Amino acid sequence: MQLIKDKQIVDDNWQDLADDAELAAGDISVSLSRWQTEKAQLLAHEGQLGIRISPADSVADFAADLDKIALVELDFPDFADGRLFSHAWLLRSRYGFQGEIRATGHYMPDQVFYLARVGVNAFKPATAEQLPVQLGYLQDFTVTYQDSVN
């Protein structure tokens, strides 16, 4: 599958591992709970590491490990929960995270511009047909009134 990263359509080389799945070779993303329980084993893994977080998770719970993490996936369970916007902003502004922050799940395509303003630099839509549409939404506005992290 492809995704949008840094305003370009690129191949997704990451594997999302379920909590009960065996470790796979390559770049992997795991839930925050798996990270917390298997951190030592995951750090020995060859390949880059990513963490998937939900709105109820706290960025502070893994902030000390950000130097070991290349990807933070914001998993939107539904359209109505905006806490992941705050998580992205905290990752960039408070904790200085320079890696990839990726929106996944049920975010609305017209939210991509605003997600980019708080630090999200990658978007994984549900279908490949949405890629050019969401890429277009990143160009919605050319003038902004507020400062942002991007």
Automatic annotation (TrEMBL):
It holds the Pfam family DUF934. InterPro entries: UCP030820 (IPR008318). This is Oxidoreductase. It comes from Methylovulum psychrotolerans.
